[in-house]
Amino acid sequence: KLTAKLDRKLEAKVVHDCDLVLSINQKILHDLAAGEKGKIISNGFDASDFAGKKKQLNQKFTISYFGNITGERNPAIVLQALNYLTEFVSNLQLDFWGNVSRDVQAELLAADKNHLIVFHDYISHEQVLQEMIDSDLLLLIINNVPDNKGILTGKIYEYLGAGVPVLGIGPIAGEAAEILQKTNAGQMFDYKDENSIKDFIARIYENRLKGRTADHSAAVGSFSRQELTKELAEI
After folding, report:
1. Which of 208, 204, 200, 198 shows the shortest CA–CA distance to 86?
2. How would you classify residue 160: left for phi > 0, otherwise alpha for psi between -120 and 50, otherwise beta?
3. Which helix H or strand E contains 95, and what residues bound it?
4. What is the mean pLDDT of the chain?
5. Cβ neighbours of residue 150 under 8 Å, at least 6 residues apart?
6. What is the number of other CB atoms lying within 10 angstroms of the CB of residue 47?
């Protein structure tokens, strides 16, 4: 308790004495009580990372998740939605690229009635970007923990750069949801909103059948590191 009290006092002194407080999101600025000193420069993506990469459609409609899966980031609700949709379509696949905890993996395999899931080992960053582009839908999950509205994973920005629709599971009034809405890159759904998740996946699936591409807004470009650096220079 003594250490925490000292930390808070030193933190407040730093904020009081500085000229500017830069943060990646609003919640951190709020917690620091930065006031008018607070400015946001978010994380972003390198547009050059995606230059020259062309989308290659998979044989199956592929939903991909990249990164670690833990109990706080459980994608079971998405699998439930897909199990329902298999009654109408037969070419669905749910890819996990990265480490999935044993408990969650066991739960998913037990519920995978239609053999939709494919687990992959780690791959290079270059390969990750290509797999993102080739996917039909990118899965984003915000940890299901208290006070999670300010959680912003670095992954969301690369998802924007890939130009593929994003299915978000997390707080619908959080900062990640705001980014998806601002850029028209996808949508955030509550952890238990299976019906809306099913409808969203079905809509993206129909878009693929009709040859429609993702319709991200120009706001996506504002999250490129080049544009963010311009903002930093102006500040």
Report:
1. 198
2. alpha
3. strand 92-97
4. 95
5. 25, 26, 27, 28, 174, 175
6. 15
